[in-house]
Amino acid sequence: MPNTKIAGIGKYLPAQVMTNEELTKYMDTSDAWIQERTGIKERRYAVKHQETTTTMAAHAATMAIERAGITKEDIDFIIFATLSPDYFFPGCGVLLQRELGISNTEIGALDIRNQCSGFIYGLSVADQFIKTGMYKNILLVGSEMHSMGLDFSTEGRTVTVIFGDGAGAVVLQPSDEDGVLTTHLHSDGRHAEELAMINFGSHGGHHDEVDYGFPSTDIPGGIFATKKMVEDGQIYPYMNGQVVFKKAIVKFAEVIDEALRTTGLSKTDIDMLIPHQANLRISQYVQKTLGLSDDQVYNNIQRYGNTTAASIPIALCEAWEEGKVNTGDLVCLAAFGSGFTWGSSLIRWV
Question: What confidence tier does 204 reach under pLDDT thresholds 50, 70, 90?
């Protein structure tokens, strides 16, 4: 049974930089306030009505495909992780196939909706496909365009200041060498609403708060959105920051330890830890808990903010480009996010 290796990696960051200072034009905040709580100095925003989650993904995917030394027609499966798709449906997987101009209709496209953990979930799925011999060139992408769905007011600042846009991609292939050693996935839906975007959804919204002139229960099929939802700001993401932080620092450490135990390795064997870029304070806490040096952890949230499903592949790509990930290195990936979901992977870089 073959192992899975990352044969090519790419990233895309929009050109438009949004600094903390610029955000003060829209909300009551400050550079000091944002950096103290998140470590973020700036983030990237895509060009509205010109760039989308899919077009950014295509840039990252093209780079990964070229670096893998294959052509787009060699791709036999697409996995696309995002919480900010171009459309409610269909998913971005087929849109990416079209955007890249892949004419092979034999390939499948799978969309992953695991938010911050999406890339690791996608990696785990791809790893199984490679190991069973089902596919030989899997394109795995994480891409997000958060800027189109944030509340640029003081009421929404605790969420809005955190997120940015971008995309990362890898091409996964069979390998006779190590590659992906292990992946671990977990979830706890009891806390789903603590970090969520509730509307628009098929639950139909808060019908009891709206006067339709007849009982809302008589509305066939329900209603995705109401004027009151918009007016009350119920169409934006919600995050209970304290709950998320407390859960994240525990689960990050646990799922990394799980991967090390499974492979018989130790913390000292880790050459590079690339955590999901949720909050610099979370990454620093995990680093301290694991006893890792600054050279063993890669963070770029300061420049890009939280790019959710794209954060790990973007950071992994940058670390590799900067010569901080090399052949033979033990690379640990870990994420925690909405759901709650979390996961980890250990990769022996080949």
Answer: low
Q: From the candidates 3, 137, 279, 306, give the one annotated as an active-site residue.
A: 306
Pick the CATH number of 3-176 from 3.40.47.10, 3.40.50.1390, 3.40.30.10, 3.90.180.10: 3.40.47.10
Instruction: Parse the chain into domains and list their residue ranges.
Output: 3-176, 180-193+238-348, 198-231
Domain 180-193+238-348 has CATH 1.10.260.30: no
- Annotated catalytic, 59? no
Phi and psi, residue 171, nearest 5°: -105, 125
Which is the catalytic residue, given 114, 276, 317, 332? 276
Burial 137-173 (b: 16+ CB within 10 A, else e): bbbbbbbbbbbeebbeeeebbbbbbbbbbbbbbbbbb
Query: pLDDT tens digit string along 29-47?
Result: 999 999 999 999 999 999 9
pLDDT in tens, 141-192: 999 999 999 999 999 999 999 999 999 999 999 999 999 999 999 999 999 9
In percent, the amount of the chain with pLDDT more than 90 equals 87
Q: Which uninterrupted H or E stretch holds 183? A: strand 179-187
Clarify whether 276 is annotated catalytic.
yes
Asked whether 316 and 9 are in contact (CB, 8 A), the reply is yes
Name the residue type at position 192. A
Q: Does the predicted TM-score (pTM) go above 0.90?
A: yes
